């Protein structure tokens, strides 16, 4: 006779895990939870109809709205409900906040999509963000939950960090939502597939690095290149421009890359794409659960496609730049002098195509 102690040991070892029953969806996919089956055609419709099969403007914007929607949250209370879709549910309020400028276009795509498919606004944003990332080579699979209820109140203004806020202010706002300085930099890996629209409207869709269709570490190196001061006064005074024509540099990125609290993490990601992707996935999963109880949601991560691998594991020095153009900021580790340099002369970085 097998003792009860031995049975307990076998169960604990996971030997019987292979016998866990799985559900078969209409398309033949098997899943741990049958509730994920209905999200398979939703996933495919997002890829084909909203993102058009590319890591383009709509995919970028969906990752952006996921951050803006979720970060309206405070551990101390008194702010928004976190990752609850309030950005869509209360678009007449939240889209008027200055920090949310330019998000109205993706709201116009995601709101009717959610209504047509019978899912919550929170799910279309945060499930949609994970699906969007799957189209960007190098992006990790982010743990993805569904089953959010619709938001009952808007997030207040001022909860989304502004790129012209001082580093200390941004870190304080993010700490209020539960994120360390390292996690903040990890979330900024999303800028590797991002572009600006409203800061400088005359150059809409100007990307933050030279490879906006790839989730790579290039943004972390290119922001470290010496720039030139923005000519003019007003709200953009002190902004530093990228030395690469056509590329836009956020002032907050420039400061994070040079601040003693964040510079070494910033540099580490420039030199290790896999680590960057791993840390981003962890921080993004945490973001998507702000204000949510995961025990009341369903984990559907297994139906999120794996993105193609990134072409390079380490960032390269763009054509027309040299190692001497890197503005060293981390006090404990130097940028290696062995980084590869792109051949040719400086060329203008193309804008992200409109969708």
TrEMBL record:
Cysteine pairings via disulfide bonds: 25-37, 36-300, 55-136, 264-330
Active-site residues, record numbering mapped to chain: 68 (proton acceptor)
Plant heme peroxidase family profile domain segment(s): 103-304
Domain of life: Eukaryota
Sites where the protein binds heme b: 191
PANTHER family linked: CATALASE-PEROXIDASE, THYLAKOID LUMENAL 29 KDA PROTEIN, CHLOROPLASTIC-RELATED
Protein's name according to its UniProt entry: Peroxidase
């Amino acid at each position: 006779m097998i003792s009860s102690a031995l049975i307990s040991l076998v169960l604990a070892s996971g030997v019987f895990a292979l016998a866990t029953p799985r559900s078969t969806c209409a398309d033949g996919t098997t899943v741990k939870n049958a509730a994920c089956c209905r999200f398979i055609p939703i996933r495919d419709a997002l890829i084909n109809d909203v993102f058009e099969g590319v890591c383009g403007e709509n995919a970028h914007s969906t990752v952006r709205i996921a951050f803006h929607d979720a970060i309206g949250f405070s551990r101390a209370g008194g702010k928004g409900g976190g990752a609850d879709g309030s950005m869509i549910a209360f678009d007449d309020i939240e889209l008027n906040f200055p920090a949310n400028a330019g998000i109205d276009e993706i709201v116009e795509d995601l709101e009717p999509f959610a209504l047509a498919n019978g899912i919550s606004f929170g799910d279309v944003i945060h499930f949609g963000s994970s699906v969007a990332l799957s189209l960007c080579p190098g992006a990790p699979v982010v743990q993805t939950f569904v089953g959010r209820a619709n938001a009952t109140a808007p997030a207040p203004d001022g909860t989304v960090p502004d790129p012209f806020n001082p580093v200390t202010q941004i870190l304080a706002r993010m700490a209020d939502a539960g994120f360390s300085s390292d996690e903040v930099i990890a979330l900024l890996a999303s800028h590797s597939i991002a572009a600006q629209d409203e800061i400088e409207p005359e150059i809409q869709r100007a990307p933050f690095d030279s490879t906006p269709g790839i989730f790579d570490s290039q943004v972390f190196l290119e922001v470290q290149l010496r720039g030139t001061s923005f000519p003019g006064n007003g709200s953009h005074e002190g902004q530093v421009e990228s030395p690469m024509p056509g590329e836009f540099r956020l002032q907050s990125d420039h400061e994070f890359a040079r601040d003693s609290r964040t510079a070494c993490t910033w540099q580490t990601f420039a030199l290790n794409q896999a680590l960057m992707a791993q840390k981003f996935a962890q921080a993004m999963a945490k973001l998507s659960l702000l204000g949510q109880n995961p025990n009341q949601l369903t984990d559907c991560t297994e139906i999120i496609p794996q993105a193609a691998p990134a072409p390079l594991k380490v960032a390269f020095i763009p054509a027309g730049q040299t190692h001497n153009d890197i503005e060293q900021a981390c006090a404990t580790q130097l940028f290696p002098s062995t980084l590869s340099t792109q051949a040719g002369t400086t060329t203008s970085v193309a804008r992200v195509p409109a969708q």
